[in-house]
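Exercise 7. Predict the joint structure of the components listed below.
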Amino acid sequence: MALVSSTQEIPEVRSVPRHVAMIMDGNGRWAKKRFLPRVAGHKKGVDALRAMVQACKARNIEYLTVFAFSSENWRRPADEVSFLMGLFYSVLETEIERLHGNEVRLKLIGDLSRFDPRLVELIKRGEEVTAGNDKLTLTVAANYGGRWDIMQALNALCQAHPEKAGNYSELDLAPFLSMAYAPEPDLFIRSGGEQRISNFLLWQLAYTEFYFTDTLWPEFNAALLDAAIDSYCHRERRFGRTSEQLNAAEKSQNAESLISQNA
Ligand code: IPE
Ligand code: IPE
Ligand code: MG
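Solution:
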């Protein structure tokens, strides 16, 4: 199916979101509540993510995109950052085969230049091994920032088409954004009680439906995903239009399908 820009065309709306983006927040607080070190929350968070991949697949969601490490998370204490890097490496080592067995395609978005070369190599291997899978695309955003993404796309566009400088359109920039392979997210979920984007997918969330839950990430599960999808199903996605326009379009579609059924 062609990828549609929500600001240039009206995208198709389905009852099950095609693309779900998640900020997996609240690991540290989950651990603190249990008098555990923060990093215990990160470990537990991996289990929640593994379950979420299965849950999304079972619900025929085509794209799951998760925020694992932001471009601002380097500001954390050095020992937490180095634990997270080690965890990332060991999780990739054990999960690549499992993802592949489950027909999941793995993609990484973010500025990989700051990572250890061994980690980058493992990431590349994970992407290569799973490249042919089409059940679910799991995108992990690591050292990712929405502003970084827009700037790297702009720089790439300037290099590719210097002659058009000053006249670039949204559609010129789109192919250079790091998620150019995926439709825009339909549903955004943030666990952990905060109601902010924290520099996640700024461009791509233009018309995404937002859902916030106080549940801390290690406790997020399939039932909570269903609650978010249920909320999503009851939204009216207008993309700038009025309710009346939407209702009229639905009526004419129903009439058309009745005519084609009777033909
Ligand atoms: C999210 O959980 C995981 C990462 C940012 C890596 P946090 O570590 O932000 O947990 P809280 O928000 O401090 O509870
Ligand atoms: C956002 O969570 C990034 C990830 C979940 C990876 P943070 O916990 O870093 O966000 P802020 O600092 O509370 O906005
Ligand atoms: Mg947090």
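Discussion. The pocket of IPE (ligand 1) is lined by residues 24-29, 69, 73, 84, 192 (CB under 6 Å).
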